[in-house]
Amino acid sequence: xxxxxxxxxxxxxxxxFLRLSCAASGLSIxxxxxxxxxxxxxxxxxxxxxxxxxxxxxxxxxxxKGRFTISRDNAKNTVYLQMNNLRPEDTAVYYCNADxxxxxYWGQGTQVTVSS
Length: 116
What we know:
Helix content is 0%, strand content 53%. By secondary structure, it is an all-beta fold.
């Protein structure tokens, strides 16, 4: 059974930081393009960041470039999202995604709330 479990969300003031983790079980993240997405209330889920299997290539939404950093530790089967200089508009539920083209998996999400 595949599970992606996010953690590290919470309430933080604008300008603060959080580090999200996504621990995978039931699959080896070596085989997957790993990513983070988010969904704010009343909005559609949107892409935040992605990282390829060997961390050579990373991709970011324009809204988070320069503030967020995605990384992975294949040995720990875990993906991270370091979020710095957080803004109120970053408030959302953040979801971890594992994508292998023909199949993908999602975590249950972790809430991030940024107060102004």
